[in-house]
Design goal:
Blueprint: H1 12-18, H2 29-37, E1 42-45, H3 52-62, E2 66-70, H4 74-86, E3 91-94, H5 100-111, E4 117-120, H6 130-136, E5 139-144, H7 167-170, E6 176-180, H8 185-194, E7 201-204, E8 212-218, H9 222-234, E9 239-242, H10 246-258, E10 263-266, H11 272-284, E11 289-292, E12 307-310, H12 317-324, E13 334-340, H13 342-354, H14 359-377, H15 382-389, H16 403-406, E14 411-413, H17 415-432, H18 438-446, H19 451-455, H20 472-484, E15 488-491, E16 496-499, H21 504-507, E17 514-516, H22 517-528
The chain binds adenosine-5'-diphosphate (ADP) and zinc ion (ZN).
Adenosine-5'-diphosphate binds next to helix 3.
Length: about 525
């Protein structure tokens, strides 16, 4: 084991107060910082707003040499560097947007040991000569920000991150710290493996954001619903409204302005000065509402955002959690509001099907979407679901601060159709030795023949036609719900649905399946209104 302890020049606590002006460390910051300062590797899972930046900035300053921060967000590097420089930290960034003379100045400062922190985009490491260049200077540590981007099955994979595994072999003597605000247990494991952090200490903070109230409502007239939500509960307060498309962003911002709300639009298609203006107004003025695509928010640190509203369904629980996490960083009561309808599901499925990813990518996207749907349709505490998704299973059944806990939904007993569906899936697999898509199971249950059905002799199954009491939409609701509550699992790279261990008591009639009534009625009415 190399001695990584050498070259510590300043005390972390003195840096915290002297440079950053804070009197106390927060949560696990101190333990993390002391571990890295002493030369240890670390994996840090901490929610948005938890204070991850100091976990590598302070060790970078404390240790001799330059802390190299690998961050995917080139657009934010400039702001981060400026903020550090204002505090008196010697910081710079190397990325493709630099003019040649700027680049030469940054390189010279690094080689002369005059930088505490150097931001680098992961793709820079692929540029020939970069590794050799970095080796000519002294590296205090490597910080790998947004480390979940290394996970192929996560929601935000970036191939350039795979290269970061090489740091372990190129610089065995330099401590590495990987940080993320979004990691399921699977992603956490992938981070550890792919970045070769086998000897790292793991610091996993609770992901609970107790001051955020979660609310998910069925979508009807979403613009009117949003307006009522803002007027009744957040008049004059700062908030973020997320929409999926640029057009919807602009239309919604205009509608809110017409209704007298101080709303600005933000998306990547707007000119840079318009975007900067929107961002500056949001940060500096009181009570501005930003209507935005998910391009907005990364690296924006506004403590008093009172609400985050989603008028379209997020693509993953990770994304939803990250976006809603921008509310209430000051700890004061805040709200995460989401309106969700069947049309969202259809649209998202179409996005996935028409996307340019391969089969495995689509299966992965579908899996993420299914978990998001599961959250929407959950009949139990939203917070418990969210925390469970991120691997925390000890949350109470009732958080007292989400829509389900505050106003429990009306339930529908879906035990019988669930049993029918589960046994159909098991029969087709056992008797035909093949796997089928959800739609084919539903055809079997409803006794709907197709060329494929007869060809596969599915009409000879004993569950053929036993489910005609329910519509296709209702059956889809049941499928979604069973995936939602984990009775059906999507397995393997093809995402084949298969009953889980937890489905056995349901099949034996020992456990009930309860669904939200509103999902069923919506499903039914959507049939007559054409979707
Ligand atoms: P994250 O990257 O985890 O989302 P940040 O590093 O941006 O979080 O920190 C969130 C906010 O909390 C920032 O405004 C930061 O200055 C502040 N902060 C971090 N650590 C402390 C601390 N020990 N005391 C007070 N404020 C802190
Ligand atoms: Zn709850």
């Amino acid at each position: 084991e190399p001695d990584r302890m050498t070259g510590v020049v300043r005390d972390p606590h003195e840096i915290l107060s002297g440079i950053f002006g804070y009197s106390e460390f927060r949560g696990e910051q101190e333990a993390i910082i002391r571990h890295v300062v002493a030369g240890g590797d670390a994996v840090v899972l901490m929610p948005t707003g938890g204070g991850k930046s100091l976990c590598y900035q302070i060790p970078a300053i404390a240790r001799e040499g330059t802390g190299i921060v690998l961050s995917p967000l080139v657009a934010l590097m400039h702001d981060q560097v400026m903020a550090l420089r204002l505090a008196g930290v010697r910081a710079a960034a190397l990325n493709s947007s630099l003019a040649p003379e700027e680049r030469r100045a940054v390189e010279a400062a690094y080689l002369d040991g005059e930088l505490d922190v150097l931001y680098l985009a992961p793709e820079q490491l692929a540029v020939p000569g970069t590794v050799e260049f970095l080796k000519r200077g002294r590296v205090a540590l490597f910080a790998i920000d947004e480390a979940h981007c290394v996970s192929q099955w996560g929601h935000d994979f970036r191939p350039d991150y795979l290269r970061l595994g090489g740091l372990a072999t190129e610089w065995p003597d330099v401590p590495r710290i990987a940080l993320t605000a979004t990691a399921t247990p699977e992603t956490h494991q992938e981070i550890t493996e792919r970045l070769f952090l086998g000897n790292a200490r793991h610091f996993v903070s609770s992901f609970d954001r107790a001051n955020i109230r979660y609310q998910i409502v069925p979508k009807q007239n979403v613009r009117a619903q949003l307006l009522a939500f803002i007027r009744n509960e957040h008049q004059g307060e700062a908030g973020i409204v997320y929409a999926l498309s640029r057009k919807r962003v602009e239309q919604t911002a205009a509608a809110l302005r017409d209704a007298g709300i101080d709303a600005v639009a933000y998306h990547a298609g707007l000119p840079a000065d318009v975007r900067l203006d929107a961002q500056t107004r949001f940060l500096r003025e009181d009570g501005v509402v930003v209507v935005a695509t998910i391009a907005f928010g990364m690296g924006i640190d506004k403590p008093d955002v009172r609400f985050v509203a989603h008028i379209d369904l997020p693509k993953s629980v990770e994304g939803y959690y990250q976006e809603t996490g921008r509310a209430g960083r000051d700890g004061a009561p805040s709200e995460a509001w989401l309106a969700y309808g069947l049309a969202d599901v259809v649209q998202q499925r179409q996005f996935i099907d028409s996307g340019d990813g391969d089969q495995a990518t689509r299966a992965n996207q579908t899996r993420h979407l299914d978990h998001m749907l599961a959250l929407c349709e959950s009949v139990t505490c939203r917070r418990k679901y969210l925390l469970g998704y991120f691997g925390e299973f000890d949350a109470p059944e009732n958080c007292g601060n989400c829509d389900v806990c505050l106003d429990p939904p009306k339930l529908w007993d879906a035990t019988v159709p669930s049993q029918m569906l589960l046994s159909t899936i098991i029969r087709t697999q056992n008797e035909r030795g093949r796997t089928y898509a959800a739609g084919q199971h539903i055809d079997v249950l409803r006794g709907v023949g197709s060329e494929r059905v007869t060809q596969m002799r599915l009409d000879e199954l004993s569950t053929w036609g036993i489910g005609t009491d329910w519509t296709v939409a209702q059956w889809r609701g049941v499928v979604r719900h069973l995936v939602a509550v984990g009775l059906l699992e999507a397995r393997g790279e093809w995402g084949v649905l298969w009953p889980s261990e937890a489905a056995k008591p349901v099949l034996r009639g020992e456990e009930q399946v309860l669904m939200r009534e509103e999902v069923i009625s919506r499903a039914t009415s959507s049939r007559s209104s054409g979707g």
